[in-house]
Amino acid sequence: MATTTKTAERARPTYFPQLAAERLDIALCRASAAVARAADAHATEEGLGVGQHLVLQMLDAVGPCSQQTLSEELRIDRSVMVSVCDDLEREGFVRRERNPRDRRSYAVTITDSGRRRLAEAQTSIPAFLGDTFHPLTPEERAQLGMLLGKLLGTGA
């Protein structure tokens, strides 16, 4: 019986809520990790990785750009970006061509196939976000977006 009581005591979260209230950095890291896991699981179901989705979305929004620009804007490590672009190019979703203004870099361009794939993937995003952020009201989600924008220095 003593073992059952100790196990039950350990199962109840009592310290972390206090810690999260005192240490916003810890709370934000844990929340970020939980959202990242959910995004990875969703991406696996969709068959399009998170990084791949972001690259297609940016290329569709801003047009051709270098891998370096994609890496910087999307905050994806350069070596990871090479792999993401390799995979997207292999699938026919992007095209890499020498940048005519700088022959040392490549301009990455979304293809028509990439636009179609992006459109398919975008259809499941609202449900994913709804499931992931279900504890928050729409107003709280908007406020969270604004606060995160401030923290990230984007003013969003």
TrEMBL record:
Family annotation (InterPro entries): HTH_MarR-typ, MarR/SlyA-like, WH-like_DNA-bd_sf, WH_DNA-bd_sf
Sequence ranges assigned to domain HTH marR-type in this UniProt record: 21-153
GO biological process: response to stress
Protein name according to UniProt: Winged helix-turn-helix transcriptional regulator
Matches recorded under PROSITE patterns: HTH_MARR_2
SUPFAM superfamilies reported for this sequence: Winged helix' DNA-binding domain (SSF46785)
Pfam families: MarR (PF01047)
GO molecular function, one term: DNA-binding transcription factor activity
